User: Fold Putative outer membrane starch-binding protein from Hymenobacter chitinivorans DSM 11115.
Amino acid sequence: MKQFINSFPKSRFAVLAFTATLGLSACDKEVTDLAPQNSITEQSAFSDPARIALAVTGVYNAAQSGYYDPLNGTGLAVRGYPFGAAASSLDDARGEDISDMAGFYGLVFANTINPSSPNVVNMWSNLYSVINQANVTIDGLRKAAASGVITAAVAADYEGEMRFLRALAHHELLIHFSRPYSDGKGSQVGVPYRDVPVNTIAGLELAKAQGRGTVAEDYTKMLADLDYAEANLLANRGSGTTAYYRVTRATKGAAIALKQRLRLHQGEWAEAVKEGDKLIGKTVTSGTTSFTYALAATPRAAFPGGANVTAENIFSIENSSDDNPGVNGALANVFGSSATIPNGGINGRALLAISPILYNAPFFTCADTRRTELMQQDKGLRVAAYVSKKYTDATNSTDFAPIIRYAEVVLNQAEALARLGGANEVQALTYLNSIRNRAVATADRYAPGSLTGNALIQAILNERRIELVAEGFRWDDIHRLSGEKTFSTVPGGGIPAKIDGNGGQLTKYDFYTCGSTTAAPAPAISAVPYSSPLFLWPIPASELVTNPNITPNPGY
Assistant:
């Protein structure tokens, strides 16, 4: 039985996209279906270099715009699942620094997800679709290299891209469906790490026999994928009209940065520093290619809008006017102002707003330029909410989704050094200041030696909340910090309480005014303790029915 490949134009390039494998719940049918008329066989897809290149970009397309099924009989839509927009919006909606304004993220925001909730089902299925398409492509690449269709070096670079995406997708699954590594040093139940293609009956049966394993086992495999990617990926890609490939395709720097992120989640501080040292203040090289990452001079310069390609961008998912996640899913529509352009907005929808919990936080100083450069009053549908200005194109949805930014690498490095303590704290504060000082007033800057120990670590964690808001990082930090508990916002770990804009809590801009005497309302959405089953998303019901070896998360 063959896995067939649909051929259709997407984004700035034509791609070959493999038939989506939605977990295992759809596999039985997919591996036995006849090829549709507009399809070509898998064997043909890897028969020449041009088609192989299209097959590789097809996996990026799956990462950008997998199909969203509302599970109500109305049919499929494109809403940026998993990484085109959904990861950024859902991961922030799980935290307290964002307020839900229209109910589109209501179940996620209110922590009332169930095994049949569309957000859960579609994230699970689309992430495993990316993983399976990467696996099918890796298999085809190896066969093509063995038969001389492409060189071993080209195949290794392509495989590095696929293994990077495979690791990225598995990690996104882990933070939603498994307990953090810090809870028992990875001994908790993980997610199935699928590294063989499900494109035959035999492959399907092999996948069905696979259980969830442990979190530690998943990290071992993710890191192995990223080690391979680092060793084989180019450091830079594209030129001229394709210069954006350096950001929208995996590179050596992206693999290193993702390894650093994983080491932070593991609490392997020295290993995180080791990875960061390869990027910070260094030129990353691979063969004849090289690139030097750097922070933008100002917060706004880090987000010029649209096809965002700066020295601060390490890896982003491309969105374009030809292939965008639609008005309900595009980043500018989710996070951007709903006011018209003449009235200072971008014609977005402001589905998610900045919460007063973050805006009024004492660590977010009043003179911080990120308040004005990257935030604004909505002035449209959400008449009393502040929204993000990081994404600006609500008309054509061309804002790239930032998955890895150099600012994150610097903050990761600062935290890892601060966790190691001692003499490392001097450099940790220097890295923190390199991010913070481009936004805060001189009087608000941290003097050398002014922060040490837990106070320094907390300051770095606070800075992450400001710098990375509306990029999908809040859940990453809530998840990893809840396992160790010391620095969790909720005592003992858990999901913090939230202010609900859709529930009518945001009625005055004064709730946001720094230093205002008008107190913001108390959160209407209660905190969820780490011990609660609601801390994790449930394994989708459709997956449990299809695969008897997948155990459900407790409490569902």
In short: The chain has two domains: 4-306+535-546, 331-533.
